[in-house]
Write a structure and sequence with these properties.
This protein has 406 residues and is an alpha/beta fold. It contains eight helices and 20 strands. α5 packs parallel to α6 and α7 crosses α8. The longest helix is centred in the last third of the chain and has 15 residues. It is globular, with a radius of gyration of 22 Å. About 5% of the residues have low confidence.
């Protein structure tokens, strides 16, 4: 306390904060890729099928329809994802071609080699190379990773080093920043996050693995960070006896976080669990969106992720779970100020248009008449967000999903 007061009272010092230690949870599962292979369903048609031999065991890609999105893009190499973690195994056969120069904030040099393993596992989820006849496929395996090493060999992240890594990523070429660690937060960290957001960077972070309702776990709980919870292959909240995904109002979206095949040190592969692997899944989706729409701002990327999500019901209620298949005709539209609906029918008819929020609660309803062809424009008194709509006429019912911006 006396040292704190000494620093705080020094001339020119505006603020003093402890260099806290942030945490990750142990999430490595033991499994052999050969032991858990299952037979492939020959009737599985539609998605892009890569030649990576481990693809068939990546249930997360099938559930989130990442393989459908690959029909449009596997990721643009100009899109860079900064992974603030323990570095990366730079010689891993599934990662080495998808790396750009990073930085080591522990030793203050450019050695980004991972000796702990967490960063290598995180990187594989988002950017394991696609179609190289090796191992697995990353969600955005055509994009590149900027490893920023600030996690030591004990799995600890010093707050000061994390802040420096966020600022570094914001000033470099990284469009997306993924963070798989958590702590109590600080005003300095919040300012770094806000700075990155102003630089048009999309940020996401793991919601944590304490299996509790939390709104005070950072960086996930900051305003400009998408908080990502973990789901399992049954579209439930990931939860084991000893740990599980956090939940609550601060969690923006869920992504697979159980039995995730990914890259391990030494060009190996294995399965992992935890929201540490949910955050890079969202980072991968953000990278796919940026690959197709490089003109999108970080806010538009955020809205596209939310608008393309599926609604699932877990033990704590209805939540959003990522869906990469936003490029198909079923993808919801993003509309600003005015909600417009085009109608084509055989006869004039009356209609009733109803909107529901993501929990299924009716929030707005209107009605009127329309001719054989026409457009319905409405300015509903709703806050911006994701809504489901239902249009009823005497000839039938149509439904859809829309992101409403004001």
């Amino acid at each position: 306390d006396s040292f704190y007061l000494l620093l705080k009272n020094m001339p020119g010092v505006e603020e003093v904060e402890p260099n806290a230690i942030l945490q990750v949870e142990p999430e490595l599962e033991s499994a052999s890729l050969e032991e858990t292979f299952s037979t492939h369903d020959s009737t599985f048609e539609g998605p892009y099928i890569p030649n990576d031999w481990g693809y068939w065991y990546q249930w997360n890609l099938h559930t989130t329809r990442a393989d459908w999105a690959w029909n449009i893009t596997k990721g643009d190499s100009n899109i860079v994802i900064a992974i603030i973690d323990s570095g990366v195994d730079t010689s891993h056969v599934d990662l080495r071609n998808n790396l750009v120069a990073g930085y080591n904030f522990i030793d203050n040099n450019t050695d980004i080699q991972d000796t702990y393993g967490h960063g290598t596992r995180v990187a594989g989820v988002v950017a394991a190379e696609i179609d190289n006849y090796e191992g697995i496929a990353g969600i955005a395996g055509g994009c590149r990773v900027m490893p920023l090493r600030c996690m030591d060999d004990s799995g600890d992240v010093k707050l000061r080093q994390a802040i420096n890594a966020i600022l570094y990523a914001a000033d470099e070429e990284a469009k997306i920043i993924s963070m798989s660690f958590s702590g109590g937060g600080s005003s300095a960290e919040r300012r770094a996050i806000d700075y990155a957001w102003r630089k048009d960077r999309f940020l996401c972070a793991s919601a944590g693995n304490e299996s509790q309702d939390t709104s005070h776990l950072y960086p996930a709980a900051y305003k400009h960070v998408m908080s990502v919870g973990g789901s399992n292959r049954d579209d439930e909240r990931w939860s084991d006896e000893d740990c599980g995904s956090n939940y609550g109002e601060s969690v923006d979206i869920y992504a697979p976080g159980e039995h995730i095949w990914t890259t391990l040190l030494g060009s190996n592969y294995g399965t992992c669990r935890g929201t540490s692997y949910s955050s890079p899944a969202i980072a991968g989706l953000a990278a796919l969106i940026c690959s197709v729409h490089p003109e999108y701002t970080n806010e538009e990327v955020w809205d596209a992720i939310i608008s393309s999500a599926d609604t699932i019901e877990i033990d704590v209620g209805k939540v959003l779970r990522m869906n990469c298949d936003l490029f198909t005709a079923s993808a919801p539209s993003i509309q600003k100020d005015t909600l417009s609906f085009d109608y084509t029918g055989t006869k004039p008819t009356d209609y009733r248009l109803t909107f529901y929020d993501v929990s299924g609660r009716k929030v707005y309803e209107t009605h009127g008449s329309v001719g054989e062809m026409g457009r319905i424009d409405r300015h509903p008194p709703l806050p911006h967000g994701v809504y489901f709509w239902e249009m009823r006429t005497r000839f039938g019912t149509g439904t859809g999903k829309v992101v409403y911006l004001k």
